[in-house]
Structures are given as structure tokens and as C-alpha cells.
Write a structure and sequence with these properties.
This protein is of the alpha+beta class. It has a five-stranded mixed sheet, sandwiched between helices. A hairpin with a 3-residue loop joins strand 2 and strand 3.
């Protein structure tokens, strides 16, 4: 299994204004697609259910670029980020259609981060 960096960005309190959360994630997805060259993106950024962004980066890419661009964007919305470096299953398609141990670890860590109200969690 190849190594990669999995990013999960969860919109905090997205259920209070789902249309705004969806609009924000659409904006952020487009921004990040331009911020990371194709050589650093292993899958395109996509979002699920209007409140969670997922990305898959090469192991040598800088995942903090996504966090900083999100936090400094003029239309920013509060987000919780989980970044995991680990193994992913080989495959194609957007990050939302991928799997592997790093995705599972990211999902589990996102649940913990939400319960602890953490804004950023990094796992290797």
C-alpha cells in the first residue's frame, strides 16, 4: 500500500446553516485544487453531505497549506482538521471514494477531535 496524507476538514456547526457550509466547501475545494499542483494531489478534493472536505496528498506535500488557506480565506467558516500520514489503498477517483488504513484512522480521529472540540489533529 502506498503512503499518502489524508486530510479531513469538518465544518463546525454545519447543521445550523447547511447551505452556507456547502457553499463554503465548494469554494474551498476549488481554492485547494489551485493551491496544490497535480504532482502533490493524489486525488481531487471533494466534500460529503455538505459538511466535510476530504483530500489526498502525496507524502511530501504540505498539508498545512490547506489549513492555513482555509483559516485565512476572506469567506472562511470555522473548521476542524484532521491530517493523517499513512497507507492508503491503491485506486483512482476523488478522496471521498478512496479507503485504506489512513482514511480509517482519519475518520476515527475526527470523532475524537469533535468530542474534545479540537480544531487540529495530526497523526502519523
Amino acid at each position: 500500500m502506498p503512503a499518502a496524507i489524508v486530510l479531513f476538514g469538518d465544518v463546525i456547526r454545519s447543521r445550523l446553516d447547511a447551505p452556507s457550509a456547502t457553499s463554503w466547501l465548494r469554494t474551498l475545494s476549488a481554492d485547494l485544487a489551485g493551491a496544490y499542483p497535480a504532482s502533490e494531489r493524489l486525488a481531487r478534493f471533494e466534500f460529503t453531505q455538505g459538511d466535510e472536505l476530504q483530500g489526498l496528498l502525496a507524502p511530501d506535500a504540505d498539508p498545512m497549506r490547506a489549513v492555513l488557506r482555509s483559516a485565512l480565506h476572506p469567506r472562511r467558516v470555522e473548521m476542524r482538521w484532521v491530517i493523517v500520514r499513512g497507507e492508503v489503498d491503491p485506486g483512482r477517483g476523488p478522496a471521498t471514494q478512496r479507503s485504506g488504513p489512513a482514511f480509517i484512522a482519519a475518520r476515527e480521529r475526527l470523532a475524537v477531535a469533535g468530542a474534545r472540540r479540537e480544531r487540529l489533529a495530526l497523526v502519523t
